[in-house]
Design goal:
The chain has three helices and 17 strands. It is mainly beta. Strands 1, 3, 4, 5, 10, 11 and 12 form a seven-stranded antiparallel β-sheet that branches. The protein has a four-stranded antiparallel β-sheet with strand order 2-13-14-15, covered by helices on one side. It has a two-stranded antiparallel sheet with strand order 6-9.
């Protein structure tokens, strides 16, 4: 690997001992325009080919084959005996009575005297598939050089992007860390200020003074008609940005004229989620599901999971297969898959048909909380006046 220091164009001196990569220009006027790509030219670093200072986006590095997981490395889960719970008639009736009791203007007689004629489960299932991935990308970074020790290529070869050891965070939680790659640092002159550490003031544009704000075009105060005490009648004042110097410290290098350049690897852990909710077309307002909890029927977590088989709701079986294939195509070749998890949740809902006083009515019981939705309760009144259903 070439371990020579990065150079700026038209630099004629060699670095002083102990200042690796720091080169002073012979003539500042000879430096090319900072927009010239050659000004940002840096050394070749093995394992990080193709990244330069001109790159706007980070370059992604694919994980080596030995880090890729194989679905066949783990056993297929045993066939499940799917036992879908249902609500009993007594529980459905008790939930209805409690619902009516909380309605101050509902007559409780129908809830107590009603006869259940049918109990129809309309359970909705939520399927969730998660793929926890790790990706690594790299780019050149620069920051003001404050005189710290330089970890240059002279100290050894830079580790490859996927050879850098990083502690994996909690599974299925997003996190990003940035790591300075060892043995890639060097010090270069700042191309923005042409190694001067100063930039022309953007308020006075190097003139060091600006027109007086109190007495513009006059020598006296407009309000007191006396000689201006701010500019002493000169009609100009020192620039308040550069304090009369005509230049300000370069923001790119912090006024130090030198930059510490290095390769930075960004490690990103991301939980990629696929979700699906089966629609039973029951006529129940689906927005009410947001306020209730469901029962977790199935959780399968492995390095690589298999599709769900034999679930009573056939759509869940198909969706599971589709989700796994989709994530495999999307992430297996570009990222490192660390873990996968699939969950099936039962969002409980039952439609209860009942009779009271010779007429038929219905209501829904839903969620673990056994909440009730009834839009046709037979006796809704308050002071003998019917009231609308909230």
């Amino acid at each position: 690997m070439n371990t020579t220091s990065p150079e700026l164009v038209n630099f004629h001196q060699t670095p002083a001992q102990g200042t690796f990569g720091v080169i002073a220009p012979k003539d500042m006027a000879e430096i090319l325009d900072p927009s010239d790509p050659s000004v940002y030219e840096v050394d070749y670093v093995a394992g990080y080919e193709g990244i330069t200072f001109l790159d706007v986006e980070r370059k992604c590095f694919l994980p080596p084959p030995d880090l890729l997981l194989d679905c066949g490395s783990e056993p297929h889960p045993a066939q499940m005996n799917w036992n879908i719970p249902t609500i009993a008639e007594d529980d459905a009736k008790e939930a209805f009575i409690q619902y009516v009791t909380r309605k101050r203007c509902y007559n409780k007689t129908p809830a107590r005297e009603m006869v259940i004629t049918d109990l129809q489960p309309l359970n909705t299932y939520r399927y969730r598939f998660e793929t926890f991935t790790e990706s690594r990308s790299a780019s050149w970074k620069s920051e003001p050089y404050w005189g710290e020790v330089i970890d240059s290529p002279q100290n050894g070869a830079a580790p490859l992007p996927w050879a850098i050891r990083v502690d994996v965070p909690d599974m299925f939680k997003n996190k990003t860390v940035a790591i300075k790659v060892p043995h890639t640092s060097s010090v270069t002159g700042c191309p923005v200020c042409q190694c001067s550490g100063r930039k022309t003031c953007t308020l006075c544009w190097g003139q060091k003074t600006v027109p007086c704000l109190v007495c513009p075009r006059r020598r006296y105060n407009l309000f007191t008609n006396q000689t201006c005490t701010l500019c002493a009648g000169r009609r100009i004042i020192n620039c308040e940005i550069c304090h009369g110097q005509g230049t300000t410290a370069c923001r790119n290098c912090g006024g130090k004229a030198q930059l510490l350049s290095y390769i930075e690897v960004q490690v990103e852990w991301k939980n990629n989620v696929f979700e699906y909710a089966a629609n039973q077309r029951s006529g129940f307002p689906t927005e009410l599901f947001q306020g209730v909890n469901g029962n977790t029927l199935f959780v399968n977590e492995q390095n690589m999971v298999y599709p769900v088989l034999g679930f009573p709701e056939s759509a869940i079986n198909q969706v599971s297969r589709t989700a796994i294939e989709q994530h495999q195509t999307q992430f297996a070749s570009t990222t490192r898959i660390l873990r996968q998890r699939q969950t099936i949740e039962l969002v409980f809902i039952s439609k209860v048909e009942y009779e009271w006083n010779g007429k038929s009515y219905s209501y829904y019981v839903y969620g673990n909380e056994h909440k009730v939705y009834a839009d046709d309760y037979p006796r809704k009144c308050c002071y003998n006046f019917p009231i609308p259903i909230p």
